[in-house]
Amino acid sequence: MAKKKSYSDNWLDNPKRILVGGVVVGVGGFLLYKLGKKIVDDLKHNGTENKADDSPEVRQAMNFRSGINPSGISWMKTFDSLNYDMIMDTAKTVTNLDAVSTAYKNLYTDDLLADLQRELNPENYQRLLTLISSNANKKGGASPVKFAKKNGLIVSIGEAFIRSSPDASYHGSIYEISDKKNIIRKAKVGEFLGYATGKQSFDLKNNVKFIEVGYVVKKDGLPANMKSKAGMKVSYWISSSTNYIAQFDYYNDMLTQYPNLQSEVAYRKPLDFYSGVKGVSGNQAIPVITKRKTYVLDEKMQPLISVQAGTLLGVYLMSLNTGTTNFVQFRTIDNTERWVNADSILTKN
After folding, report:
1. Distance from C-alpha of 194 to C-alpha of 198, rounded to nearest angstrom
2. For residues 185 and 171, what is the distance between their CA atoms, to the nearest angstrom?
3. Sites in the chain below the pLDDT cut of 50
4. What single DSSP character describes residue 209?
5. Fewer Cβ neighbours under 10 Å: the N or C end of the chain?
6. Distance (Å) of CA 238 to CA 135, 210, 231, 243
7. Residue closest to 182 by CA, chosen among 232, 249, 259, 237
């Protein structure tokens, strides 16, 4: 008498059943995977969305999405009209692009930069990246893009407009009618404009990068025709384009190229020349003078040059306590920042 086959043997003897069973298991597994992924994505979305009140990066991600997909219907993203102003206004506030991109991915499972690059033309995409990379409060990645180093010496090499505000809309033409005519005058070629204040601005509408420049007129040692301007402060905005300005870190470099500016820099000083320094009372620049033979140190605190007692090194900037040694940072006559051991100098008002 033949042995009765088990249920599993009957199943294995039928290839069609095996094929169908494999398909069912495969489809079931795929559906479970998709369901699981959706649950995880939903949890990420909800968790990220709940942080909107506390996280500027989440709000920025949501604002970018609103600019890219104003209707709020995800499948309409490629058909929606772009809200360009919202995207650029949001870009101005971004300090951590990586965190915004992560929030965007968690919220919408899309790549933020890919979406922006697809929606913006190349010129506007570059504007957006410039806005983000030049934010003074930028975190992560490369350091913020600086249009000019603070107290850098600025010389005009083209006839650029000197403006009261960082807006290039007005061009000085007779036919232009505006109540915001911000042009002060046109800079002369080879003119010493002053010192960069460290403030910068990007005129998105006109695609112009601006820096603020200024100076204070010395209070003493002025020629007769300048005495009425003693202590006067001047500041304005100018395009940072290399077509219009040259930037120098040191007086010597500038005067080698523009020797006729010697008299101007003699009485035009940085805006903070008479300002108090953090932790120091008084509003007069404080001289740093050696009280014995010592070494001047570079930015890495390495000995650079030996100087004798009684040498005027420059103007006090700040102090640094490493736990074992006190150092003082000062600015030299050629606008270089150096260090010296605090025990070897004296500072006088």
Report:
1. 12
2. 11
3. 11, 23-24, 27, 40, 276-283, 349
4. E
5. N
6. 18, 5, 23, 12
7. 237
